[in-house]
Protein 1
Amino acid sequence: MGRVIGIDLGTTNSVIAFYEGSRSEVIAGTNGDRTTPSVVGRGSQGEWLVGEVAKRQMATRPQQTFYSLKRLMGLRFDEVADITNKLPYEVVRGEHDLACVRVDDKPMTPVEISAMILRALRDRAEEMLGESVERAVITVPAYFNDAQRQATRDAGKIAGLEVLRIINEPTAAALAYGLDSGQTKSIAVYDLGGGTFDISILNLADDVIEVLSTGGDTQLGGDDFDQAIIDWARQEFLEQTGVDLLEDPMARGRLKETAERAKVELSQSLESHLQVPFVATVDGVPQHLDLTLSRARFERLVQPLIDRTLECCLAALEDAGMQPLDVDDVVLVGGGTRVPSVQRAVEELFAKMPNKSVHPDEVVALGAAIQAGVLDGTVEDVLLLDVIPLSIGLETLGGVVTKVLERNTTVPARRSQIFSTVQDNQKSVNVHVVQGEREMAVDNRSLARFELTGIPAAKKGVPQIEVTFDVDADGILKVSARDLGTGVEQEVCVRDASNLSEDEVERMLAEAGERHEEDLARRRRAEARHTAEELLLNVEETLEKSLGRDVPTAECDRLRELCERVRDALENSVSSFEHDELVEATEALQEAAHRFADFIYQGSH
Ligand code: ADP
Ligand code: MG
């Protein structure tokens, strides 16, 4: 069996790495790219584009270009209301109430679309490593709940990958650092990505990494820094021209691109020019956006966002029972940590220089690859302990939550609790599983509901129902309830609540396979066209040059005829039938061209 690879499926960028020798390494694409934008687009011909090519059409085809999908993964439509109005593409309610995106009037799950990114990464790995890749470790933000982890695993499956382990991104980052250190210390991993902020407090001792606490904000990242610039630019433009750029999806897309570029530039320079020509028209007169943003102003715009990350840090420290000064090492992860004022703020909070020796954009994938190495036996002596990010409990009388597994419990974990009936002769109990920190069930995320029936008639409070929560090493939950009197047991697959069913995943897997075939066919067609066009140009040039030389006219005519046939085939080569004709015509022309060349060279002797 081939090796296991590590994948950082990021909100903004994804990275793939593998373990070899005694270190992990990023797998770059043929063009040298080490990261792939987590963007999937529908091209003008209905084809699917992934990565850089998809990102490039973001401004021109905003409604068909899907980015930040990770923010929607595994969530219900109602849970993403605050995100959707920021996205230029349409988010709709799909089956099981899942948040989906609209593709050609049909809802498509973020899981399926993310699978295309994973598939592209897998293809890259297979191409570069020259072997088939079927198993992976994928990272997720520490804050991901059960449904989001399930969704990530499903995406892997649809991409044809067996996901051996889901690990938290900060844990992966710590792994990338921890292996070499061999000493005992506490570290804080501050990860500011495109869409999420995670802070984790970890303990490293003798190659054992323990997560003491995690925290963060799933709705805070570099995108919000871009948004701060967009809001500012929109306001400035509104004052200058009276035009609201956010009303036009196309302008919105172009502004987003420009804002991000300005942000990145401001990590290096003290000033950036935002220019978007022909962004709007007023009374038929084209308007251009042309603004200058200083680093100082930018820092003021984003300070509230940075402050929010610091509050999360303090909360996570408190959970770990620590003060900022107790942290020995601070690790910066994610492209967002390249912003100088972010680095400054982190340095001030922890009163020490943050560690940046491993590339912040790659560190998570590198850590995932180490975990992959552990799973396929290449790396030894690393034990990874993760925690449950949010408490899991049951709704009990009056809608109150009784927590069974507290947040930050180390996984794998198993806990049971005995519950009883609330009425005399009650025959069944409803078990409602929720995840979150709030007191009332309605304020938390509902994970699953099921009913345990067949309880023998008894006075209230007499029956004993044991509910067991089992969280595996991936942080994925199984719940079972057992009537201790009768032994009747019921297990619930939490995925039923809001996730895709096994059947749906299988169907998507088949569809993805077809799509891959289709893409291959499309690529073959494009290559055939390219070959034909090249050959045509080449032959026409040869014909021109051979004018007046001693070449039989019949040969020239034959060649011209074949050129004509290729040209016709090129014009018609849309369906696969004509594609065959194109290939045949090209071959015939190729052969004739070779014969023709023989004539020319013989003639020149
Ligand atoms: P994710 O983990 O969400 O995929 P990354 O770690 O790749 O994200 O970080 C992406 C974010 O980092 C984006 O918002 C991007 O604009 C930002 N970013 C990348 N490079 C820089 C830079 N030089 N300065 C500021 N922000 C940057
Ligand atoms: Mg990341």
Protein 2
Amino acid sequence: MDFPSPEIVAYSEQFSAPESELLAELQRETWAKVLMPRMLSGHIQGRTLSLLSRLKRPRRILEIGTYTGYSALCLAEGLAEGGVLHTIDINDELESMVRRYFDRSPFADRLHLHIGDATRLVPELPGPWDLVFIDADKENYAVYFDAVVDALNPGGLLVADNVLWSGKVLDDPSTFDAETAALHAFNAKVASDPRVDSLLLPVRDGLMCCVRL
Ligand code: SAH
Ligand code: CA
């Protein structure tokens, strides 16, 4: 399922701030050299993350699921002066590429990459957080939410990607695969959690946005 249409995406890109040269190069290198390049956030979602971060002006950002670092670099654009971003990925094969791009960015000294399993590392990283972006293994979204929600500052923002899962969340639940079931359960869980107000933004593959009350 394509939503919105490729033409609408192209039009939206035309009338949005362009990607920086560094982000465009990272996107090109990812598509040329890395497995599963569709996982990279891309232009419109990257600008969305940048906008949310600039509105929030976070002092502390946590990202779960770095991949090649595109979304981390977008989120870092909104960091408050002296703010830091911690990002976690389990795939050590991506580490040198991520560090190469982080080092070339204006945020080199404020980006902290951790290689390891986020289910183990998230509880070890000290909060509080002003912005959390969940974009790793879908089966553990609820685990990550539970691990960070009480470490969010009041007014803190939690964003989770791919919560529409290419529209598979609309299928008959008896036919769900494990990831679709986990994402649907995650959406229902956060929508009914009294600690947050949620908005499922149908941007690209679905961004669940929660504000900590
Ligand atoms: N946020 C990136 C895309 C992330 S893709 C962007 O928007 O550009 C998902 C990433 O989650 C992959 O790189 C994968 O290695 C990582 N991942 C999967 N399971 C994980 C786990 N248990 N702990 C940490 N990272 C994990
Ligand atoms: Ca994603």
Protein 3
Amino acid sequence: MNRDPVKGLQMRTYDQLASAQPPYSAWDIFGRDDELGTINLLTPERVAAAAQLVRTGRRFSLDYPVNAFQPFPTAPRPATRHQVFELGEFARDDWLDSFYLQSTSQIDGLRHIGHPVYGFYNGLSAADNSGASTRLGIHNWAESGIAGRGVLLDVVRFFAEQGREYDREATVLLDATTLDEIAAAQGVEWHGGDMLLLRTGWAESYLSKTEPQRVDFSYRAKSPGLARREAVVRWLWDKQIALVASDTPAVEAQPVLESDFRAPGRLQSGSVILHQPLIALLGMAMGELWNLEDLAADCAQDGRYDFFLTAKPLNIPGGVGSPPNAMAFK
Ligand code: UVW
């Protein structure tokens, strides 16, 4: 599949999506048979423009190694076993056992999280979201490819430079105002179809721990990230963010301290995770546990926070998620 999916697309603001069915969904924006979601926003024109951001040839891998996060900080995502065997004296092959596709840097596909009222993206029911079907699988993004303008917001540096208290193991809520403040401090402007990378420092903090320290560490009590507020969903949609990724296990701050999804037709407070409106209603691509350290250092050094970004999930028909195989180029 190599289509120009945005041709003829009638974008609407988040508030205009109030009259959509379901409310605040993008199902009629991208089409009821769509399986790409916000990756549709990566038009050929935007990809070509983003490629112009490659000026020095510096490149950055954004994936941590398989098994880097063992024991995995969320419930049960076991270690992958890597087997190398001799085909002959001078030939080797290998395979993976128990390759849990969300156990290291990952992209969440559109089958990952559904809405408690409306089901999965574009109306896929919970009953139909099974191994018997490939609908909304990660293979769609493997085949379309993911490429475009990446923008890094460096939360850690912003707080340090502002002299504001910041704990990368705390529930720091990044609301729309804070995102705007960081973007302004970095001189970032939004182009539409951007892929947003949020560096919080969480992954490096977890990786610096010994195994017993990791076991002790209750990640759910302590993770910076997007605030679970409708204003954040509006901010992401109205900026036409094609993908949002961070170096945390969930992109959104954990645990849920409060959420303002209370209105009828929206999500009920208490059960809300940001994944639900983002993935199920808006079809937004989300990435977790990405390695943003070297890229962030380079951005701080040259003062340029945008770059060409590519990701190529594994082509697993019906896959729920995948390591992103993400690269940034400057
Ligand atoms: C959540 O769904 C909150 O996290 P993950 O995508 O890692 O399952």
